[in-house]
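Hey team,

Sharing the ATP-binding protein run so nobody has to redo it. Sequence (498 residues) first:
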Amino acid sequence: MKVGVEMGVTAKGAAAMLDLEELLATRLLVQGNSGSGKSHLLRRLLEQSAAHVQQAVIDPEGDFITLADRFGHVVVDAGRSEADLQRIAARARQHRVSVVLNLEGLDGEAQMRCAAAFLGGLFDAERDFWYPMLVVVDEAQLFAPSAAGDVSDEARKVSLGAMANLMSRGRKRGLAGVIATQRLAKLAKNVAAEASNFLMGRTFLDIDMARAADLLGMDRRQAEMFRDLTRGQFVALGPALSRLPVPLHIGAVETSARSTSPILVPLPQQPPEDAHDLIFKRGEGEPVRLVPIRPPAPPPTADILLDLARARAAFAPAPEEPVDEMPAAEREAAQRAIMAEILADRDAAYRSVAILYQDFLVRCRIKRLTGQPLDLPGFRRLLAVVRAGVAAPADGEADAASAKAQEMAGALSEDLQGIFLLLAQAAIANVPCPPDAAIARAYGTQSLGRARRLLTYLEECGVIVCRNDFRGGRVVAIPELDRETAPGDPNAADAAVG
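Structure output:
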């Protein structure tokens, strides 16, 4: 059955007809800025088609509940659970009852969830109840936004999915989507693209005018006409409206919205003192409204941490009495002895400096060494000295040579100091040159090849000079100390290990 709905009149005065049967198959998109007459257009469509097709209205502002008195629509208050809304939507399809889902008073996220649940109930109805239904969604950009907003991603996802199902898959289930939006740029493209009929109203932004012109197949220069449209004027295009863009003016409606456009009303005439009393004094019969007392805002985290620090300082225990520190020479001798105990373990040479340092600090506490503990650089120097066997000799000349050797070692990197001091100590005592195994142990490695490469590196730096005697023994000379070692077998076993 072909049913024509009169939407208004064209610019030439002819009746602007809408083919309702074609609309059910091709869907409709209405666009226009606030005040352009979108709600008036939707109301005209609903009133003219109410006798021919079942209707469901998603009403975010409660404007369409006035249809109930004149056309018998059932108003569904959205203050229900999502499961209840799904069941109500399914029953509405079963009994072919036109309904208005009133979302007034809910926040944006709650509106999205309720609309998604209701549309899901319409969409998931049993196949026996897939009767034709006109589903009108006012302010569709609220339920199918093009970008994330202040609502949660979950709410946006379910609402956008329900709108996409309505516009893309609803036709096979008898659902014809009619969506209205203030701005095409705010509406998800996959929802807007499913409509084949368009009614474009007044708009001012270039991006919206350009999209409207593209949808209507108009030239970009013709898009300027959308700025000049008056309230209630729209440009129509689509198989259910017209094959070519045609301007039309929407006709009158029988019902009215609860919210209307602002109308200027004269201000009441009253003396200033009466106006003062009207505001600050409670009127006769006016109920007393108790204003809830809001708890004070929590203090900043920085202030809380500062208060805790002050409280901790106030209750801090009294400082302990200072303990008599042992003499520096005695403490140094004790530290050398502790280091010697650590290095007595044959595996200590191959442990990391950090592990040896922790062991050293623990042993110092056990020995109750007072004074400032040795820092890590000082520990590295002490380790190199003790590992090389440098001790305070008896005669002054050797003592001066050892001090000079330690000064030279300080100019080298920390990993080379122990090797240099080992060679310097052998040169000062004129004992055989340490073998490769001893040099490797001083470096903390078991690689003899690395030990030989380290000797070559020190010689390249000009710190030592290596030579072999006529028997093949290795001699290491330290020119700056004017000392050299006795010949030694580089392949001999390490005496400290063996």
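Residues 108-123 form the longest helix (16 residues).

Ping me if you want the raw files.
A.
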